[in-house]
Every structure is written in structure tokens, then in C-alpha cells.
Amino acid sequence: MLHWVLLYTAFFATCQAALTYKGADWSSLLVEEASGHSYKNTAGSTQPLETILKSSGVNTVRQRLWVNPSDGNYNIAYNIKLGKRAKAAGLNVYLDMHFSDTWADPGHQTTPAAWQKYNVDDLAWEVYNYTKDTMDSFQANGVPLSIVAIGNEITAGMLWPLGQLSKSGGAYNTARFLHSASAGIKDSTISPKPLIMIHLDNGWNSATQTSWYDNVLSQGPLTSGDYDIQGVSYYPFYNSAATLASLKSSLSNMRSKYGKQVQVVETDWPTSCPNPAYSFPADAKGIPFSAAGQMQWMQMVASDVSGAGGNGLFYWEPTWIDKYVAIL
Q1: What b/e sequence results for 36-67 when a residue is b if at least 16 CB atoms lie within 10 Å of its CB, and e otherwise?
Q2: Does the pTM exceed 0.85?
Q3: Contact indicator for 185, 133 with CB cutoff of 8 Å
């Protein structure tokens, strides 16, 4: 069981100036507030979370979007409501489209229930229209988007089984779905147009990143012009090879080879980890499991992202009190 604390003020006040996007995933905020939770700044005063984030140096908030979740949480209406609060506080919004009714990640990329009978052609068309309609809805509600990720941690593909990379035709189908999503953004009414991101996990692993992009880009439908940012997740507690040095090298290689903006869009650090399932990376073993350790971790990651030519860093997900303990 991991317990988490993030001191925003301490970290973002000293964050690398070279990072354009300094942020956190605050997707669960409305769920937590509905459960009666509130947030305090480091002085102990209760404030709206957006006020705390903004005054602490955060400039962008990340929000996950699910297609048709059973309880309505994280759907389009939820995200527009949350996005309006971000806009009012002067925060940019980064929309993370999962293209699923629930969590999408390296082990789960379940096609939305309403789309599961579609063939490849129909599914690509649905992705285009759904993405375009989503952008149009944000525009109609006066909520600008700075970044839109077309998929969440899609290292193994998206919209399974048709877009599962391990299956025949999966890489081509994934390329097609991504192109459709990109076109939906570009053809929408949203203005100004957000930057388009592709997001994979294991950002420290250069071979994973380059093999994925080389494979999917070689299929034909997806082109370099379809996206602007290569986003990665970077967690230090799943593999001892996930060193800070490897992250910096991987991001630098990506930046050099593909010429895109690179960002770490998910990372965090524990305040308690008594029985880790895996060894921590050698260059992170000196970081304590504490709030001070979280600050140290984020400063070190920020330095390596900046040093590799990257321009964004996001913490996952400090507001989720019912999952972790968050002290802001």
C-alpha cells in the first residue's frame, strides 16, 4: 500500500523555468468534493484546489475523458464542468482522451460498449466524429484546450481487439484510429487548435519508444504531421532499469529522432513503500519516501526533462484522496 503526499508550493515554485507546462492531473477533483473532501494550502487555509495550484506555480491541469462511464464520472459533461473551473482560475487544460468507457492503460484498451460491433472502417469513422464532437462541445462551452492526448498509454495499441498491436493488422488499425482522431481535432470548430499528443508508457525505455513510433508511423495512415507532442509515463517503482539517466537519454533520443515536443505526463513518488515489489532505480535510491522526497523527485525529473529538451511535467494524481493521501 502506497501513501502519497505532494507539496505543490515547494516543487513548482522552484521548477525548471524551461518547462512550458507545469502541471498535475486533477481529474478526480469533482468526485472528491462530492465525497466531502476539501483542500488546504501549505499555510493550512482551505481554498479551492485551483487557487492552490495556480498560486503554487501550476499552469496546466490534466483531465481524463471516458466515452460513456457507468456513473457519469469523467464523461464529457464532467470534463467541461471541471474545465470551466480551470479556465476561471487561469489554468490551461490538457484533455486526456481514453477512447474507452473506463481506464485505458498498457493492459487495458477496451473499446467503448457502443462501438464494439463496428468493423475497422466504422470504428475509424466513429473515432473521427466522436473526437470532432468533443472538440466542438468544448468550443461551444467556452473552454479552450491547450493539449489533447489521443489515447492514454497506448504502447500496446488502442481500441482492442482491432487496434491491438500484438494482433495481425493491429499496428495499421492503431495508425488509422490515431489519424482519425487527429483529423477530428483539426476539422473541429475549436479555436485556437490544441496541440495533439501521443502518449506511451515506460518513457525511460528508448527502445520501446522508438520501436513503437517506427512501427506505427511505417503503416501509412499516421503521419508526423498528425501530432505535435510525444508524451510518456515515467514511474520509478516498476523496474529497476527505470533510472533518471535512462529517462533523460530516452527523451533526448526521441527529441532528436522525431523532432517533436517531449513531455513526462505521468509520474509520482511514494511517502511510504515498506515492501516494494521491484527494486527502485539505482540513481533514485537516495530519495526518501516522504513529502520532501516527493519534492526532490520532481525537481530531479524536471531537471532531466529540461536537460533532454523536453518542455512539460505532470504529477499523477495528487487530488485523489480516496486512493492516496494528498496533502497540498
Answers
A1: ebebebeeeeebebbebbbebbbbbbbbbbbb
A2: yes
A3: no
